[in-house]
Design goal:
Elements lengths: L13 E4 L9 H11 L6 H8 L1 H11 L5 H12 L7 H5 L7 H12 L4 E5 L17 E4 H4 L6 H11 L6 E5 L2 H9 L3 E4 L3 H12 L11
């Protein structure tokens, strides 16, 4: 029996983030620049993933590890009408850079005692060579576990590995459907567009001051 007035200490929410488009700059301008470099209209890659079921099926195969990088590159390169497929993923991501403000925010949150995790749909496992995985207490990479966002199981696995309940987690992603998937299992989701908008929201939800928060654009 707990004494009158006793209050259990509340645990600070965990922070779980996406990689591409959250800890990096947006992938879409990089894809547009790639298209222009090979003589395609800037929106070609984006339009394929949005409107061609074959392209989406290839992406899902890559994300879940069912397709190896070279096979994806060959088949997606054919959809693009390209003769040169080798290194296609690397070339598509050449214009993607680290978002230092978001990486700094994760670092500051962890230093303040916030459990941190990563849940990412992979574009081949090689892109994680640049990921700051040392910032996370737990990681879930879709290609390693055979799941992909927005499947509920991948969010639940991320929470399990981090040792938190979904209701104790704040999830950050740049895609609406992935945020909706997180909310469907009980997580609080923040859709990321830019650090100036996301960082104040995280400060409120996590209850910590993020040292990297800079209100300038």
């Amino acid at each position: 029996m707990e004494p009158p007035g006793f209050r259990r200490p509340t645990r600070r929410p965990a922070l779980i983030v996406d990689f591409g488009g959250v800890l990096t700059t947006s992938i879409w301008p990089a894809f547009a620049a790639f298209c222009e470099s090979v003589g395609l209209a800037p929106g070609t890659v984006r339009d394929l993933f949005r409107g061609d079921g074959r392209a989406l099926a290839l992406l899902r195969g890559l994300e879940t590890g069912e397709l190896a990088d070279p096979e994806f590159e060959r088949r997606f390169g054919e959809l693009l009408g390209l003769d040169e497929h080798d290194g296609l993923i690397t070339r598509m991501f050449a214009g993607v850079a680290t978002d230092e403000r978001m990486v700094g925010a994760v670092r500051a949150a962890r230093a303040a005692g916030v459990p941190t995790g990563l849940i990412s749909n992979s574009w081949g496992l090689g892109i994680y060579d640049r990921a700051p995985t040392e910032l996370f207490d737990a990681t879930v990479i879709s290609g390693e576990v055979g799941l992909h966002k927005p499947q509920p199981e991948i969010y639940l696995l991320g929470c399990e590995r981090l040792g938190v309940e979904p209701a104790e987690a704040v999830f950050v992603d740049d895609l609406r459907e992935n945020c909706e998937g997180a909310e469907a299992v009980g997580m609080t989701a923040v859709r990321h567009r830019d650090a100036a908008e996301t960082l104040p929201a995280l400060e409120r939800l996590l209850g910590v001051a993020l040292a990297t928060t800079d209100r300038s654009p």
